[in-house]
Amino acid sequence: MSRAFVNEDSAAAQADQPVERLVSAQPNYVTPQGLQQLQDKVAELQTEYAEQSAKGEQADKQRQADLERDLRYFNQRLSSAQVVAAATSTGKVQIGSWVTYADEHNNQHRVQLVGEDQADAGNGLINWGSPLGRALLGAQLNDEVLWQRPAGDQLIEVIRIESA
């Protein structure tokens, strides 16, 4: 067999391997709920991987490779998780705080600062390391902070801080 065919087969096999998920360089601060979500995700992936493995030769090899990749990622995220105690003070914004802020048009928005894996902007869960999260973190009631957005900087005012 020509060496060229061996290399092609090897390249084709590598093409089926999923691209690794990048792990953020920022500290992995999580709320207690975020930790539970990570634990649930790992358990879910382990169950699905076991189900695929039980199929033997009938298993979906691509799905198994995807599950292995996701398990590596979420196990790493779980092992690096630093649980932040639930916010008990409403004196300043911290991870876990619910914050209501007003924008320049006096429109009010309510968000909670959470860890990266828990973030869901559509539900008001904002990564503490995002531009909005960094602007709000450490702010106090009635503080005006600069939200440095890609669409342009915006001054916002903290009008309510609630513990989780």
How is this structure best described in words?
With 164 residues, the chain is an alpha/beta fold. The protein has 4 helices and 7 strands; from the N terminus they run H-E-H-H-E-E-E-E-H-E-E. It folds into 2 domains: 26-83; 98-162, Transcription elongation factor, GreA/GreB, C-terminal domain (Chitinase A, domain 3, Roll), CATH 3.10.50.30. It has helices at 3-15, 32-54, 61-80, 131-136, and strands at 29-30, 82-83, 98-102, 108-114, 125-127, 144-147, 154-162. It has a 5-stranded mixed β-sheet with strand order 5-4-3-7-6. The protein has a two-stranded parallel ribbon with strand order 1-2. The longest helix is centred in the first third of the chain and has 23 residues, at 32-54. The model has no long low-confidence stretch (mean pLDDT 89).
Secondary-structure topology with pairs:
Layout: H1 3-15, E1 29-30, H2 32-54, H3 61-80, E2 82-83, E3 98-102, E4 108-114, E5 125-127, H4 131-136, E6 144-147, E7 154-162
Parallel strand pairs: 1-2, 4-5
Antiparallel strand pairs: 3-4, 3-7, 6-7
Helix pairs in contact: 2-3
Strand content: 15-25%
Largest sheet: 5 strands, mixed
Task: Please state the structural category.
Answer: alpha/beta
Number of domains: 2
And the CATH topology of the largest domain? Chitinase A, domain 3
Percentage of residues assigned to helices: 25-40%
CATH class of the largest domain: Alpha Beta
Label this structure with key terms.
single chain; alpha/beta; Chitinase A, domain 3; five-stranded mixed β-sheet; 4 helices
